[in-house]
Amino acid sequence: MSAKLKVECYAGYKANQRPCAFSLGKKKRKVTEIMDQWYGPDHTYFKVVADDANTYILRYGEKDDRWELVFFNEGNYPGELSPGIGKDATS
User: Fold this and answer.
1) Could you tell me the residue range of the domain that residue 62 belongs to?
2) Bridge pairing between strands 44-50 and 27-39
3) How many CB atoms lie within 10 A of CB 83?
4) Residue 83 located in a structural domain
5) Where does 13-89 show beta strands of DSSP type E?
6) Which one of 30, 41, 57, 82 is most buried, by most CB atoms within 10 A?
7) Total domain count for the chain?
8) pLDDT tens for residues 41-72?
9) How far apart, in whole angstroms, are the C-alpha atoms of residue 46 and residue 69?
């Protein structure tokens, strides 16, 4: 399940090019690092580290102009992540 959130973005050659900050409820987080970015059939994904040192995966759907939080990990996780899959997907 994903959570809705409000995202502030850098807009360069296109709108919502990359996230700069996001709010989940009343808490606002500044994006300090974009660790990865990839494209799905209908969405663009951003693996980011916020100013709270936590890792988030944010998904943007251009068709419906909607951002969602699809993954959260406390602390800076060094491994590879896919949406909805944690460190050990076999257990």
Assistant:
1) 3-73
2) antiparallel
3) 15
4) no
5) 18-24, 27-39, 44-50, 55-61, 66-73
6) 57
7) 1
8) 999 999 999 999 999 999 999 899 899 999 98
9) 10
